[in-house]
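Running this now, will post back.
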Amino acid sequence: MIARLVALAIKDRLSLRKEQEAQAELQRQNDRLQLLLNLTNRITSNLELRELLRAVSANIREVMQGDVVAILLPDAASGHFRVFAMDFPQRKGVVREKLLDTHPPKEVLDAVTPVVLDWREHQALAPEAYALAAAEGLKLTCVIPLVNHGRVLGRLSISRRTETSFTPEDVEFLSQAFGPDCHRSRKRFGVPRDLRTQRQARPGEALS
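Update: finished.
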């Protein structure tokens, strides 16, 4: 009798856990659908490009549970990438807008597909890039190249101070949802003169 009651209790607990997991997944999908709607609304707004990308960054940071989201665009004068727009409410001031990325991790130099960086494994990463991440307390970064016809137009970077990993579903969603929107926004609003470049851009920093 006792064994049967225990078995029933375990079954009920497992059923409850599955129901909670299903509800959490449904909420996650709803949040991501809302993000797509917000992105569409932002793109069709009359915001200046930097303000537009700041607003988009804030939406992404909230939905993807990040601590910082940054968008980097090529800087023609230096040949490197520069932080063009960022949402980082709890920043310490080390990573900031207009920061020039001169030492990106080698993993993102020629990447045209998403890259996830674990800053805790800093021995394998560029010391300069790790120093910035460590100063801000960042542990993980997901870098989404913004690619059009094989050319990297910019980079979306999402970082976390927690040890919560970026799942394959996270990466796939960001790749599909954000890349095309960023390209359309740049095409519509144009690229600022100091960020124009005539050559194929190198990938940018994955920190911010």
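The chain has one domain: 3-195. More later if anyone needs it.
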